[in-house]
């Protein structure tokens, strides 16, 4: 099954403008409600990969969760121009914890995070 | 804890069959889980490395971009980026890892113009930072898409592993012990009935013997 899909970027205008030069469709949004709407809209259309800035993702996690167990779209969090919040990395770790039960990258974490890791 | 059943021979055969199926299913699911975890660990390591790399480079690209915006006027930036030189589409195939459907993404670039220039603008009004930002972004785009593929695969696998583990546990700790207990209960009941029957027969025989003598 091969089908043509598109790539989309959702985020604040300043960050995603750079992606426009690559020929990726951009959805500039200003607040979380707009981001939510844009994400839903993009997911319904033929967007297989949606890049979403962490700053937006932080507040609309519930909408992102709708698509976690679907094959498409793949929603990938990216840092915005103010730097990374580490949410994308945290998601990777949480899926490790979900699958294996313990975080196998635990030794690479910082001190205070090990404390929270032990509670699981 | 045994389920409420009639202690009959037919029920016993049925339960024994179910136990056999449950054991087989448990073994298969356990194998599936092991394999999934093996695949998952490989992938998630790659996922982590890739994400670190992409986040790093993306941050630097965006920093450059911010700089570019600072030195150029807003209109010029927007105007420069208005018409991309290429259109990026992707092919998505469905891959299969232990019957989990995963996306396989292939990049598909379409040049709009014949030129080799990857910048969609002339150099007269723009700054070098913008060139840097666009260049880095264009370079990491394949990585970004690979990350999209791998991260999604990891999420799907994690989901499947969780589901499989729940099933394995349900079979191992609930279904199978319950079936075993019920089978034990029925066979004991049947044995008891058998013994009662034998004793009764012996008693009857004794009475008949006594009478005939």
Can you put this structure into words, describing what you see?
- The complex is a heterodimer of chains A (120) and B (213).
- With 120 residues, chain A is α/β, with parallel strands linked by helices.
- Chain A folds into two domains: 1-83, Rossmann fold (3-Layer(aba) Sandwich); 86-120, no CATH class.
- Chain A has six helices and four strands, in the order βαβαβααβαα.
- Chain A is globular and about 40 Å long.
- The termini of chain A are far apart.
- With 213 residues, chain B is mainly alpha-helical.
- Chain B has one domain: Helix Hairpins (Orthogonal Bundle), CATH 1.10.287.3240.
- Chain B is built from three helices and two strands; from the N terminus they run ααββα.
- In chain B, strands 1-2 form a two-stranded antiparallel sheet.
- In chain B, β1 and β2 form a beta hairpin.
- The model of chain B has no long low-confidence stretch (mean pLDDT 84).
- The chains are: A alpha/beta (120), B mainly alpha (213).
- Chains A and B meet through β1, α1, β3, β4 and α5 of A and α1, α2, β1, β2 and α3 of B.
Write the layout of secondary structure elements.
The complex is a heterodimer of chains A (120) and B (213).
Chain A: E1 3-11, H1 13-20, E2 25-28, H2 32-44, E3 47-53, H3 54-57, H4 61-65, E4 74-78, H5 87-100, H6 111-118
Chain B: H1 9-71, H2 74-81, E1 86-97, E2 100-111, H3 128-212
Antiparallel strand pairs in B: 1-2
CATH superfamily of the largest domain in chain A: ATPase, V1 complex, subunit F
Question: Structural class given helices, strands, pairing of chain B?
Answer: mainly alpha
- Name the overall outline of chain A: globular
Oligomer: heterodimer
What would the average pLDDT of chain B be, to the nearest integer?
A: 84
Strand content of chain B: 5-15%
Helical percent range of chain A?
40-55%
Low-confidence stretches of chain A: 109-120
Q: How much β-strand is present in the residues of chain A?
A: 15-25%
What profile does the largest beta sheet of chain B have?
A: 2 strands, antiparallel
**Spans of at least 5 consecutive residues with low confidence of chain B:** none
* Rg of chain A, alpha carbons: 16 Å
**Total count of helical runs of at least 4 residues of chain B:** 3
What is the top-level CATH class of chain B?
A: Mainly Alpha
Helix content of chain B: over 70%
How far apart lie the N and C ends of chain A?
A: 40 Å
């Amino acid at each position: 099954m091969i089908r043509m899909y598109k790539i989309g970027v959702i985020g604040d205008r300043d960050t995603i403008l750079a992606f426009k030069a690559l020929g990726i469709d951009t959805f500039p949004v200003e607040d979380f409600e707009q981001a939510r709407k844009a994400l839903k809209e993009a997911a319904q259309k033929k967007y297989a990969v949606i890049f979403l800035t962490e700053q937006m993702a932080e507040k609309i996690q519930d909408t992102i969760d709708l698509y976690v167990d679907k094959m498409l779209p793949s929603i990938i969090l990216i840092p915005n121009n103010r730097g990374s919040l580490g949410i994308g990395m945290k998601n990777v770790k949480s899926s490790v914890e979900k699958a294996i039960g313990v975080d196998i990258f635990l030794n690479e974490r910082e001190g205070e995070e090990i404390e929270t890791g032990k509670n699981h | 804890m045994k389920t409420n059943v009639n202690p009959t021979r037919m029920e016993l055969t049925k339960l024994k069959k179910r136990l056999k199926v449950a054991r087989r299913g448990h073994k298969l699911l356990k194998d599936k889980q092991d394999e999934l975890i093996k695949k998952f660990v490989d992938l998630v390591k790659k996922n982590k490395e890739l994400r670190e790399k992409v986040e790093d480079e993306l941050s630097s690209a965006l920093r450059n971009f911010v700089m570019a915006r600072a030195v150029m006027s807003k209109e010029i930036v927007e105007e420069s980026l208005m018409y991309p030189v290429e259109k990026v589409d992707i092919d998505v195939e469905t891959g299969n890892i232990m019957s989990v459907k995963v996306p396989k993404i292939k990049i598909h670039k379409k040049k709009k113009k014949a030129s080799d220039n990857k910048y969609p603008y002339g150099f007269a009004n723009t700054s070098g930072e913008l060139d840097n930002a666009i260049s880095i972004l264009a370079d990491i785009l394949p990585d970004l898409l690979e990350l999209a593929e791998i991260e999604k695969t990891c999420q799907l696998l994690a989901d499947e592993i969780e589901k499989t583990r729940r099933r394995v546990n349900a079979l191992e700790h609930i279904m199978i012990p319950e079936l075993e207990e019920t089978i034990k209960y029925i066979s004991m009941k049947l044995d008891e009935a058998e013994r009662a029957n034998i004793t009764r027969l012996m008693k009857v025989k004794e009475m008949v013997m006594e009478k005939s003598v």
